[in-house]
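Entry type: protein chain
Record version: 2
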Amino acid sequence: MALARKHDRTVGALGARWGLSSEKAFRDALSSILEQNFGVRVLHIDEYDDQGTVFGRPEQVELDVVVTNGSLIVMELKSSMTKADMYIFERKARFYERRHDRKADRLMVISPMIDPRAQRVGERLGIEMFSDSLLVESL
């Protein structure tokens, strides 16, 4: 049993590390393509929420933002999305809107694994979800 638990922890740690690395690789590639080929600005926002509006206490908030032709798209790139992740993303987007006094035109989640419960939440919140890159509409 102890060996099985250790194996599960090791596999879980490898999966988490792979998820973070793949998210960064995808984010970097997407930024490069959009900025170099389409004149789009892609910003990785890392701001401090001193009021605790996103996580219930003061904390850093990370978010990806795409600006094109005056349009603002707030994106979340994750290896997997849970129901809680979807609610957190929506709070992060609203935090950004208040902080920068600018309404997002689109909220997008890009993830190969979106839990069905998270999908239902995203639909209710008006968040566009893409689990296949072929589904992303043109900017």
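Comment: The domain at 2-135 is CATH 3.40.1350.10 (Trna Endonuclease; Chain: A, domain 1).
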